[in-house]
Specification:
By secondary structure, this protein is α+β, with helices and mostly antiparallel strands. Helices cover about 15% and strands about 30% of the residues. The strands form 3 sheets. Strands 2-1-12-6-7-9-3 form a 7-stranded mixed beta sheet. Strands 4-15-14-10-11 form a 5-stranded mixed beta sheet, with no helix packed on it. It has a 3-stranded antiparallel beta sheet with strand order 8-5-13, with no helix packed on it.
Length: about 260
């Protein structure tokens, strides 16, 4: 790792009212070009000495995809039912980075882990066709979507602080040319709990972007949590999660109580 913080100096200054979305993602190409200039002479820094926050600071939306992974040979009716559920939104206050950890609340409930591919929008778009959808992706990260049980709407239950972990970094879209064939894995306290591949998605990345953009404008930095494979299970204070997505990265996240 190298300190390239000065690359952020290329971002333009704004006055209120601020534009919608994350300005790093809106100017990612410019920032990346500056990063490449700064990286070579930069001083190396040990990764384990850093606090890893979410690589996306200001999304205008966090969009989730429920029941989006096939768990076997589902029939057409089952897949159609999953497609009809659509998508849901999570509160932006739920966003945190790997080093911040998961701070559990509502401890009387079962609270589950879900490893997911996070898809980050790079350019403003609306009404995007499926064929063009991936052109609007800025990058990818690993995500944990934390899910308490309950009868309330999922958007409420899933929006507690630290219930969306994104990290350990952002991988630009050019480094993942095909998001439809990536292995996902989650270990809980050293035991493999989830293992799958994005080819199991019912609504794939391009399909999610096209579908969501038919309802609302997507802004730079908007995050899609694209669903989770089988093996979802409970977490408790003191647990350690290691979550990984092929070609994207691996992050270690500690679980503790809120407060």
């Amino acid at each position: 790792m190298r300190d390239v913080t000065a690359a952020l100096d290329v971002l333009p200054s704004y006055r209120y009212p601020l534009p919608a979305g994350d300005m790093l993602m809106a100017h990612l190409e410019t920032v990346v070009a500056r990063v490449r200039t700064l990286a070579t002479p930069g001083t190396p820094i040990a990764l384990d000495s850093l606090e890893l926050l979410s690589p996306i600071a200001n999304p205008s939306k966090i969009i989730g995809a429920p029941m989006n992974y096939r768990k076997g040979d589902e029939d057409d009716a089952t897949i159609a039912a999953a497609m009809s559920i659509g998508l849901f939104l999570k509160g932006n206050g739920s966003l945190a980075g790997a080093s911040e950890g998961i701070k559990l609340r509502m401890m009387d409930r079962k609270i589950d882990h879900e490893v997911e591919l996070a898809v980050v929008i790079g350019k403003t778009c609306a009404g995007v066709s499926r064929d063009q959808a991936l052109d609007y992706v800025g990058g990818y990260s690993v995500a944990l979507d934390i899910t308490p049980s309950g009868k309330e709407e999922r958007s409420l239950r899933k929006s507690c602080e630290t219930y969306t972990i994104v990290g350990p970094w952002l991988v630009t879209a050019d480094e993942v040319p095909d998001p439809t064939n990536l292995d996902l894995r989650l270990e809980l306290n050293g035991e493999v709990k989830q293992q799958g591949n994005t080819r199991q998605m019912i609504r794939d990345v391009a399909g999610m972007i096209a579908y969501a953009s038919s309802f609302y404008t997507l802004n730079p930095g908007d995050i899609f949590l694209s669903g989770t494979p089988a093996g979802v299970g409970p977490i408790r204070p003191g647990d350690r999660i290691v979550a990984s997505v092929e070609k994207v990265g691996t992050m270690t996240v500690e679980v503790r109580t809120a407060g």
